[in-house]
Design goal:
about 500 residues; mainly alpha; 2 domains
Length: about 500
């Protein structure tokens, strides 16, 4: 068992590597998505979006149901790995075959024959993703985010820039995106196994198998609920509207979720793996969660407002007039960033406090309300769908954060100071962005308002960091000081009184 100091140092190094590779992935993913969206247009992108929705569902079923247990165990044996890998591949192969066989029916459901070949192509990615899950989970357990980050960078670059963009230029249409996804999954499988070799000899049962299967069942049900709440909007758009509308909505949704996806990719596995080693120390777990939540509330709230205000200019500059209908949806979904991230970093608390079943149980009532709401509003267009989706995201965040607070014996009031600081910064940034856009209004150069608003917001934040760092709060300063030493607080972040009574 690692000492407290060693675990803290390892977690800090993991977060730093995650942060560095997250920035690189954001730039790479953003550039590739813009290039492919411009080359292919909403219709082709919509066909891929439908296929990706199906792939996401299948990947949720097979991608980590058994491998996930490897991150939660206090210690892992070779038999644990062999058992997880064996059943991961079996379930992954079964799901891939089912996905391939269902492709004709899905094409009929969406009234677009192009969906059949797309879904069949992506079934290969489904199997590859499932096979890579054990090595990926072991790397996360080891907090080896240097390797994970480099794998994600290399796989995305090879898949989408090395294969997707050239195929799009050659006129392959949506197949360019499908091939890129398959290549990315193959690179992840090969490189993750090279970075974290593990036993692959089949093992169908062993002493810890029942616990692994129980975890797998919980992951399975949780993934189904999460998929429905995160993807049924696009299914209904494809069914009620058309592939063009799916493309518009999907690009807005994907672009809005990039900051959240990358941030959670950096933080969530670190909290999950570290929390598994701190299951008997709720005080330290609560402290780590509160610091993370404070950072999200202080930084993500103003960032979401800035992104939302700049969304129209961003779409016009990067995607062109063909994508203009995405701008309103993008702005609304950008405002969901704090809720997305708070919910994402709270789920590890449930999994590490023997409350993993609550993630899906608490969301089932939301699903019962959201499904008819999406169905009723789908004919009204993608804006109506986006409004329902945004409400669902905030509702999910509320119920999951409430459960995490209860698990750690904390109160809502413990989060209010950070939320207040975030709201204050959001007001200042809003004024800065609007002022910058107003000053740039007479300039006809493309992107002038976008750059003016963004620079104004960055200047305001730079001034706050230098002149009034206390506005960030002690918790956020303690984290940012690891990267910006001039922000170092005078004392470590304190625990709220509500958590001091937890058993040590």
């Amino acid at each position: 068992m690692r000492s407290t100091a060693a675990l803290a140092a390892l977690a800090e190094r993991a977060v730093k590597w995650s942060a560095a590779t997250t920035v690189a992935r954001f730039l790479l993913q953003f550039g590739a998505q813009v290039a492919l969206a411009r080359l292919l247009g909403p219709d082709n992108y919509g066909v891929y979006g439908i296929g990706l929705t199906v792939l996401t569902f299948v990947a949720f079923l097979s991608g980590g149901s058994f491998a996930w247990n490897l991150m939660l165990l206090p210690s892992v044996t070779a038999d644990d790995v062999r058992f997880s890998f064996t059943w991961q591949v079996i379930v992954g192969a079964g799901c891939a075959v089912a996905m391939y066989a269902a492709a004709p029916a899905l094409a009929l459901f969406f009234s677009d024959q192009r969906v059949q070949s797309m879904v069949q192509m992506l079934s290969i990615a489904s199997l590859l993703t499932a096979a890579a899950a054990p090595a990926t989970c072991l790397l996360q357990r080891d907090l080896n985010f240097r390797a994970l980050g480099l794998i994600q960078l290399a796989s995305y670059g090879v898949g989408y820039l090395g294969v997707g963009v050239p195929m799009a230029l050659q006129g392959y249409g949506p197949s360019a995106l499908g091939a890129a996804c398959v290549v990315q999954a193959a690179v992840v499988l090969l490189t993750s196994y090279a970075a974290r070799p593990h036993p692959v000899r089949p093992l169908f049962s062993h002493a810890g198998g029942s616990a692994a299967l129980a975890t797998g069942r919980t992951v399975f049900v949780t993934n189904v609920v999460n998929w429905l709440l995160s993807n049924i909007d696009r299914v209904l758009i494809g069914r009620v509207l058309n592939a063009h509308a799916v493309g518009l909505y999907n690009v807005a949704y994907n672009l809005a979720s990039i900051p959240n996806t990358l941030l959670l990719g950096a933080l969530q596995p670190t909290f999950l793996a570290t929390g598994a080693k701190l299951q008997d120390d709720r005080v330290r777990m609560a402290r780590g969660w509160l610091i993370a939540m404070s950072c999200v509330l202080v930084l993500a709230i103003p960032s979401s407002i800035v992104f939302a205000l700049l969304s129209g200019d961003l779409v016009r500059l990067l995607y062109g007039p063909a994508w203009s209908d995405s701008a309103w949806v993008l702005g609304l979904l950008f405002m969901c960033l704090p809720a997305w991230t708070c919910w994402g970093i709270s789920t590890p608390v449930l999994w590490n406090t023997d409350r993993k079943h609550l993630e899906y149980m608490l969301q089932l009532p939301l699903l019962a309300v959201a499904l008819p709401a999406w169905w009723i509003w789908a004919p009204s267009g993608i804006r109506a769908i986006a409004i329902v989706s945004a409400l669902v995201i905030f509702a999910r965040a509320v119920v999951i954060v409430l459960a995490a607070l209860h698990a750690l014996k904390l109160r809502w009031s413990d989060l209010l100071p950070a939320a207040g600081r975030g709201a204050g910064l959001a007001c200042v940034c809003t004024a800065a962005v609007l002022a910058g856009q107003r000053l740039a209004a007479p300039i006809t150069a493309p992107g002038a308002a976008l750059f003016a608003g963004a620079i104004a917001a960055l200047l305001v934040l730079a001034i706050v960091l230098r002149v009034l760092p206390q506005a960030l709060g002690r918790e956020t300063r303690s984290v940012l000081a690891r990267f910006m030493p001039f922000l170092r607080a005078d004392a470590p972040a304190a625990m709220p009184a509500s958590a001091e009574g937890l058993p040590r």
